Amino acid sequence: MNILEFYRGKRVFVTGHTGFKGSWLCRILLDAGADVTGYSLQPPAENLFSQAGLADVHTVIGDVRDFDALASAFDAARPEIVLHLAAQPIVRESYRDPRATY
Predict the structure, then answer these.
(1) DSSP per position, 27-86
(2) Does domain 3-101 have CATH number 3.40.190.10?
(3) What are the residue ranges spanned by the domains of the chain?
(4) What is the pTM of this model?
């Protein structure tokens, strides 16, 4: 079995799906035939996610630190697989606000 065949027809929940790595992961999962739900903050106006033709990803805008919103999106998606890529990638921001970064 090809590794990508494993994802065919699976419900996959991806946090941080509008980021650089999340966008590429969503593209691969869609190409593999997965049913993808993404959960992330609102991306900036120019972003890879919008440019990569990922309209088939069910997108939920929210913050992973908001447990109730995340739980609601998770319950609605009923995922079989969860891939957690949400992160605060700006190092200087992590110095200014380490608790929120964690």
Answers:
(1) HHHHHHT-EEEEEEPPPPSS-HHHHTT-TTSEEEE--TT-HHHHHHHHHHH--SEEEE--
(2) no
(3) 3-101
(4) 0.87
